[in-house]
Each structure stands twice: as C-alpha cells, then as structure tokens.
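Practice problem 4.
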C-alpha cells in the first residue's frame, strides 16, 4: 500500500507538471505566463493604471498638474449634456495601442481586456445603473469597410457585467462623415451635426449608458447624447 501511495503521488506530481507546461495561462496583451485565470500580467496591469485623480468629473479632462477633482473652466461655463461620465485612462501608451489594435487590426481577443477596463471605469466613477446600454453607431458605409462596429462589440461584452439590456439600433448614424481624427475641434463639431438619429420608442423614459472607445473633444458623445435626450431618454 505504501508503494502504491508513493507511485500515485509521483504520478500526480508528473500530471501537475505536464499541466503547468502545456496548459499555462498567458497574458492576453503580451503573452507572458500568468497564474490561474488571470488574463493580465503585472507589467501590463501596471502600464494600464487608471486615472483616479486630477481630472474634471464632468468632461474627463485630465489636468497636467495637481491631484484635485474639480470642474474645468469650460464645464463651469456650460455643463455637457450627459449626467455622468466614466473613463479609464489617457489615450496614450499601452492603452492607446490596445484600442488601435482592437479597432483596426481586428485583434478581437483584446475586447475582454478593454471591457474589463470599461467596467472598472463604470464602478470607480459611480455611474448610475442604466436601463439600457447603447453603443455609439457607425454609418453603414464605414461598417462595410471596417467589418464591425467596435463600440457595439464592447457594449455586448459590457452589458451582462452591468446587468442592463443592450439595444444595438436605438441610435443610428444617418450621415457618412470623414473620420474625426482628421479634423480640428471646430471642424469636428460641424462634421457631426445632425448625424445621429434616435429610434424614439426604444429610448423614451429610459436611462441610457452610452459606450464609446475614445473621447477627444467630446463632440461625438455630445451629438449622440443630444439625440438620445431629444428622443426622450
């Protein structure tokens, strides 16, 4: 019996060793080996540290100096049309790289990472529980060229974590416009004016969580929010 027990222990150790060699978990970003069900290594998690102080709580502008959270000069003059805003970090470094690879290189495995960050932003910024989740839409011509709406895919993954229904077609982009990244702040505003249309019976009286990937001047989110509010959200 003693010999059988020793043999069993040896076989069990060999099995565990083989599992550790052939079934190792790896970081979804860099491929480094990680423990258990963790999908980000310590290095990538450190490089993706969130902004938790030194910003405007209304528009998300991050200040170059200081740790206080207070309204910026623009928001003190006129508040944005939304009632709450959550964001994870600056569009720079590894976070920018992940968004670009997900959006343009179709590295869809990064969706899990980006939604993890979105959910942290939702919790950290104390956003209210929404009735519906609505992604920022893309025009059908852009959708055909790119192959997928990245905001919709992120919203699909976020919805079950928050416990709210996803409505993919509550907001529609009716004008095909040049990419915002190519334009100045003034051009961005006129470029998107009257570009979005809301499906009234889907948003009336509903509290909406609008999902986008990157906010620069805030024009896209403002135009989407105004359309939703005018539609009764």
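Answer key:
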């Amino acid at each position: 019996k003693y010999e059988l027990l020793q043999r069993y222990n040896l076989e069990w150790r060999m099995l565990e060793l083989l599992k550790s060699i052939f079934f190792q978990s790896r970081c979804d970003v860099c491929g480094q080996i990680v423990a258990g069900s963790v999908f980000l290594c310590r290095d990538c998690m450190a490089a993706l540290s969130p902004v938790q102080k030194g910003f405007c709580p209304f528009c998300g502008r991050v200040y170059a100096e200081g740790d206080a959270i207070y309204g910026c000069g623009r928001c003190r003059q006129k508040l944005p049309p939304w009632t709450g805003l959550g964001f994870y970090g600056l569009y720079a470094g590894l976070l920018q790289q992940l968004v670009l690879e997900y959006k343009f290189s179709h590295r869809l495995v990064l969706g899990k990472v980006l939604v993890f960050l979105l959910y942290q932003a939702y919790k950290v910024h104390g956003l209210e529980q929404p009735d519906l989740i609505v992604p920022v839409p893309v025009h059908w011509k852009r959708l055909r060229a790119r192959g997928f709406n990245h905001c919709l895919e992120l919203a699909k993954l976020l919805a079950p974590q928050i416990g709210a229904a996803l409505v993919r077609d509550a907001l529609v982009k009716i004008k095909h416009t040049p990419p915002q990244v190519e334009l100045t702040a003034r051009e961005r505003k006129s470029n998107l004016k009257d570009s979005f249309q809301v499906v009234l019976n889907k948003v009336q009286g509903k509290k909406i969580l609008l999902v986008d990937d990157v906010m620069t001047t805030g024009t896209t989110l403002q135009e989407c929010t105004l359309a939703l509010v005018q539609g009764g959200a």
